[in-house]
């Protein structure tokens, strides 16, 4: 049987890299990114800057979220940190090792989990996929089969390990992706949209597995669009826009940034006349009608009484107030880009 590898990003000649200072008092952080820049040059066109001086520091044992719209630079950052793409400028270290100058030292320290079907050979079985990637990552031959069997069992794939991956569901493929990321027992994991396309049950199971890995003390960097996922799993969250980190805080602290973004949810089928009356009130920033419901956002808590009074005047009484969420912070910091990428 022949295996045709998927096309990989070509590794360019490494630019000159100067050493970053490290502290001798304590172990270096899991991730230390300083002024990272990455430009993509296309023929006869202006270079596109994917990373524009990005800086980020993640201590060991932290689950850190990267949130941002398409094109913000999240995947480019993950590719640089996993040594498959070179930066144009700046520096990045994984547990004290430079990702360019010490790429061979970095690779055993990291595991990468992508969403979708990238990196899986669908005509091979789950076990064959995992054993192949274990060999690629230089897992010792004496322990390779045992380690693969243990991971397949842990991730609930032992019963289907000898089936072709083309028969796997989305959730099963994502669990196999996670097994691939763990097969070398890496202390740092990069998860790039790991629950993309998964149904809610499969996503919940996958998130539970991430919680287990967190309990083992691994460092996890989670690039995602899922607000609820980031709020539940992450110790801290960084918002990325235009190739830069624009804010980094805990999910709770980030929610405090949107303290003025209160709102009301209507469970009744809202009358368009009522919504128009609410939309005209001072302090109302948005009115979002839905199927048999509506969501109203106001600039400050002091505007809620006027909104509730107007809804009551229009006989809409099945309502509830909302506290600011991580999504409110996302929209406040990133902005509503619509379909722009």
UniProtKB/TrEMBL annotation:
Keywords: Antibiotic resistance, ATP-binding, Nucleotide-binding, Transport. SUPFAM superfamilies: P-loop containing nucleoside triphosphate hydrolases. GO terms for molecular function: ATP binding. Residues 31-267 form the ABC transporter domain. Its main location: membrane. Pfam families: ABC_tran (PF00005), DrrA1-3_C (PF13732). Gene3D superfamilies: P-loop containing nucleotide triphosphate hydrolases (3.40.50.300). It is a peripheral membrane protein. InterPro entries: AAA+_ATPase, ABC_transporter-like_ATP-bd, ABC_transporter_ATP-binding, DrrA1/2-like_C, P-loop_NTPase. It is found in: Cell membrane. SMART domains: AAA (SM00382). Belongs to the ABC transporter superfamily. This is Daunorubicin resistance protein DrrA family ABC transporter ATP-binding protein. It comes from Actinomadura meridiana. The lineage of its organism: Bacteria, Bacillati, Actinomycetota, Actinomycetes, Streptosporangiales.
